[in-house]
Specification:
By secondary structure, this protein is α+β, with helices and mostly antiparallel strands. The protein contains two helices and ten strands. It is globular and about 45 Å long. The N and C termini lie far apart (about 70 Å).
Length: about 190
């Protein structure tokens, strides 16, 4: 015999399970970065697997009236809270990447840094090794990047390039993350 209570309980249980499943889906989609680089780093053969992503908006270095989206993909987990705190104190990219100095946020890991313009086009792309040496990524053959409502960035890029010595470097990256709120771009 069906009662009103059992039907209500079933609907309640169904919506609770559906709600929790949606929560898990959105949480998983909120922050994902993956991909590989195969090639040479500092003249040595290397294969890097990227596992973490972090992104924020910053002032464009060349045109102070514009902003760029900066995306980091790292082989190791990033300390996002500490990085965000540093950017809130000094919202310029140099807060995370101090050239020629030990960088406590990205030190001893290999990572990719992408700079995207307001339309999602790649302005700059670099691969930094564990030793802090920066190199240009292989020629990007295919890229698809979306910046959704200035709050989220999603994209993929791939490319390969044959060096003068005949070695081939390949990159294949995918990322999707919410942009970290650090306040207005530029110096405080």
């Amino acid at each position: 015999m069906k009662t009103h209570l059992s039907t209500t309980l079933k609907f309640s249980l169904f919506f609770t399970v559906a709600f929790l499943a949606l929560q898990a889906t959105f949480a998983a989609a909120a922050d994902s970065g993956s991909g590989t680089f195969v090639g040479t780093i500092s003249y040595k053969p290397a294969t890097v697997t990227f596992k973490d992503v972090y992104a924020y908006r910053a002032e464009d270095s060349f045109d102070k009236t514009k902003e760029v989206t900066v995306v980091y993909l790292s082989e190791s987990p990033l300390d996002k809270k500490t990085m965000t705190d540093a950017l809130r104190k000094e919202p310029a990219r140099r807060a995370l990447t101090k050239w020629g100095k030990i960088n406590k946020y990205l030190d001893k890991m290999t990572y990719v840094m992408l700079e995207l313009d307001e339309n999602g086009k790649i302005k700059n792309s670099y691969l930094f090794s564990q030793t802090g040496v920066g190199e240009a990524l292989p020629k990007i053959v295919k890229s698809e990047v979306k910046i959704n409502t200035m709050k989220r960035v999603e994209g993929s890029l791939s490319g390969d390039e044959k060096g003068k010595d005949g070695d081939v470097s390949k990159i294949d990256l995918r990322f999707a993350t919410d942009l970290v709120e650090i306040g207005p771009p530029g110096k405080k």
